């Protein structure tokens, strides 16, 4: 019995971990209150919650790579924190393109940002300063780490850096269509 249990544990440990990242279409910046009151955006939030649950329960995804620059990414981070309470085995990896994003002056933004960073399993900064390719480099890093890529936007081709995954046969690509 002990040998069977040991073999099972070894098999589980050797299984390739499944990971996911989200690439979001850039949206016009509004306050958190605007998005939380906007019915069109509300459906996107519901779809994000359903997608995260599907990825955890049906696809066995355990590692999530997220940015936290766009408001959609903030919500993904907050939803993942809530799911982490139900599924403590999942890991949240925050990836920022450069350091200055952590010093925003908006109090609500900073508090929500700090909560995600504090509770993430890892926190990576791609570069020390802003460059003209900073978002591309962040997205490239997340795609390379992921088995599943979720595109969030009006159309797949509008999502930031869609070209990173359009020819990758080794990536499972999912799409959440938004109205914004």
Features:
20% strand; alpha/beta; 44% helix; six-stranded parallel sheet; 180 residues
How would you characterize this protein structure?
- By secondary structure, the protein is of the alpha/beta class.
- 44% of the residues lie in helices and 20% in strands.
- The chain is built from 6 helices and 6 strands.
- The chain has helices at residues 2-14, 32-37, 39-57, 71-86, 107-119, 134-145, and strands spanning 19-24, 63-66, 91-98, 122-127, 148-153, 172-177.
- Strands 4-3-2-1-5-6 form a 6-stranded parallel beta sheet, with helices on both faces.
- Helix 3 packs across helix 4 and helix 4 (71-86) packs across helix 5 (107-119).
- The protein is globular and about 55 Å long.
- The mean pLDDT is 79.
In short:
The chain is an alpha/beta fold and 180 residues long. It has helices at residues 2-14, 32-37, 39-57, 71-86, 107-119, 134-145; strands spanning 19-24, 63-66, 91-98, 122-127, 148-153, 172-177.
Q: Summarize the amount of helix as a percent range.
A: 40-55%
Look at the helices and sheets and give the structural class.
alpha/beta
Radius of gyration: 17 Å
Q: How far is the N terminus from the C terminus?
A: 56 Å
Q: What's the number of helices?
A: 6
Helix and strand arrangement:
Elements: H1 2-14, E1 19-24, H2 32-37, H3 39-57, E2 63-66, H4 71-86, E3 91-98, H5 107-119, E4 122-127, H6 134-145, E5 148-153, E6 172-177
Parallel strand pairs: 1-2, 1-5, 2-3, 3-4, 5-6
Helix pairs in contact: 3-4, 4-5
């Amino acid at each position: 019995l002990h040998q069977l249990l040991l073999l099972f544990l070894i098999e589980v440990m050797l299984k390739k971990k499944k990971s996911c990242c989200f690439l979001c279409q850039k949206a016009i910046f509004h306050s958190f209150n605007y998005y939380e009151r906007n019915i069109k955006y509300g459906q996107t939030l519901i779809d994000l919650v359903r997608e995260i649950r599907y990825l955890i329960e049906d696809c066995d995804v355990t590692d999530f790579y997220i940015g936290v620059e766009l408001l959609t990414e903030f919500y993904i981070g907050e939803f993942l924190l809530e799911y982490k309470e139900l599924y403590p085995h999942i890991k949240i990896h925050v990836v920022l393109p450069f350091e200055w994003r952590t010093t925003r002056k908006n109090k609500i933004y900073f508090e929500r940002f700090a909560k995600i960073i504090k509770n993430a399993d890892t926190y990576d900064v791609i570069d020390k300063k802003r460059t003209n390719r900073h978002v591309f480099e962040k997205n490239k890093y997340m795609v390379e780490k992921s088995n599943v890529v979720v595109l969030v936007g009006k159309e797949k081709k509008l999502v930031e850096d869609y070209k990173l995954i359009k020819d990758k046969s080794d990536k499972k690509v999912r799409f959440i269509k938004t109205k914004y």
